[in-house]
Design goal:
This is Enoyl-CoA hydratase. The protein is α/β, with parallel strands linked by helices. The protein is built from eleven helices and ten strands. It has two domains: 6-201, 2-enoyl-CoA Hydratase, Chain A, domain 1, CATH 3.90.226; 205-251, Orthogonal Bundle (Lyase 2-enoyl-coa Hydratase, Chain  A, domain 2), CATH 1.10.12. Bound molecules: octanoyl-coenzyme A (CO8). Octanoyl-coenzyme A is lined by residues 24-25, 27, 65-70, 72, 80, 83-84, 87, 108, 110-112, 134-135, 138, 142-144.
Length: 258
């Protein structure tokens, strides 16, 4: 897959998508979002070849410094709606991708960049990463899901503090409030993200996919419905040869071959 604003790499069942507009600190303009959309569509179709995904930013300074402000500045309400809708589509594609997605946050994750990170399933960050939703400084609100996913992830009070103040927090604070899973020195971030991606890629791919579906869809349900939904997905596992291989391998004291 060849793109102008993103770089797609694939090896050993892991796809790495790098947002690559370093001069604009990897800000998301329309073209970058369209490229992400077509890249993610291909990744979603290739569950046989791709078992986990990493999204990161190019360079050592920025993951994604937001939606592109130069692109947005002249927009009218209809243009704003179209752009926000495109961003929402891309974030939903990340969230609902069959494969787990790890955000390797290697610097600024602001505005649309923070929204992209929180659309991913898991967040690892470098020690120089900074997070925030600075939209109120620009006279707008988050438009790629920040007012919705951030409170669901870290709770309403903490999300409100970030959303209303527009302030930036460092990666240690982001880890403390559960916005990121782990923080690593910048030079170890990709290695650690790849290790996790490889571990996920080595597990039963169908089971991992159903786990993601169960968590994502179950979180929209009450507990009883969520547990009933999990029961159905659990039952589905027994229709797949993966379950036979995984359990037989355990009983035969060998590693499973998925
Ligand atoms: N958009 C466009 N260009 C950007 C952006 C951005 N979000 N962020 C940085 N850049 C550009 C700068 O303009 C600059 O370009 P140039 O060299 O041509 O002047 C270059 O990147 C380097 O940036 P700085 O010189 O500012 O670098 P600093 O190290 O001094 O500062 C910061 C880094 C703190 C990250 C600073 O660049 C900054 O504050 N950036 C803006 C952050 C921001 O406000 N992000 C939120 C944007 S709004 C948003 O994401 C809303 C999402 C929903 C949209 C809904 C659609 C309608």
């Amino acid at each position: 897959m060849a793109f102008e604003n993103i770089v797609f790499e694939q090896s050993d069942g892991i796809a790495k998508i790098t947002i690559n507009r370093p001069k604009a600190l990897n800000a998301l303009n329309k073209q970058t979002l369209l490229e992400l959309q077509s890249c993610l569509a291909e990744v979603a179709l290739n569950t046989a070849g791709i078992r986990s995904v990493i999204i990161t930013g190019s360079g050592e300074k920025s993951f994604v410094a937001g939606a592109d402000i130069s692109y947005m500045q002249p927009l009218d309400p209809a243009g704003g709606k179209t752009f926000a809708s495109l961003g929402h589509k891309v974030m939903a594609m990340v969230e609902n991708l069959p494969q787990p997605v790890i955000a390797a946050v290697n610097g600024f994750a602001l505005g649309g960049g923070c929204e992209l990170a929180i659309s991913c399933d898991i967040r690892y960050a470098s020690d120089n990463a900074k997070f925030g939703q600075p939209e109120v400084n620009l006279g707008v609100i988050p438009g790629f899901g920040g007012t919705q996913r951030l409170p669901r992830l870290i709770g309403k009070g903490l999300a409100n503090e970030l959303l209303f103040s527009g302030k930036m927090i460092d990666s240690a604070e982001a880890e403390r409030i559960g916005l990121v899973n782990r923080v690593y020195p910048q030079e170890q971030l990709m290695e650690e993200s790849m290790k996790l991606a490889a571990m996920i890629a080595s597990r039963g791919p169908g089971a991992v996919r159903l786990c993601k579906e169960s968590v994502n869809n179950g979180m929209e349900m009450d507990l009883n419905r969520g547990c009933a939904y999990e029961t159905d997905l659990f039952a589905l596992c027994f229709a797949d040869e993966e379950q036979q291989e995984g359990m037989s391998a355990f009983l035969e004291k060998r590693s499973p071959k998925f």
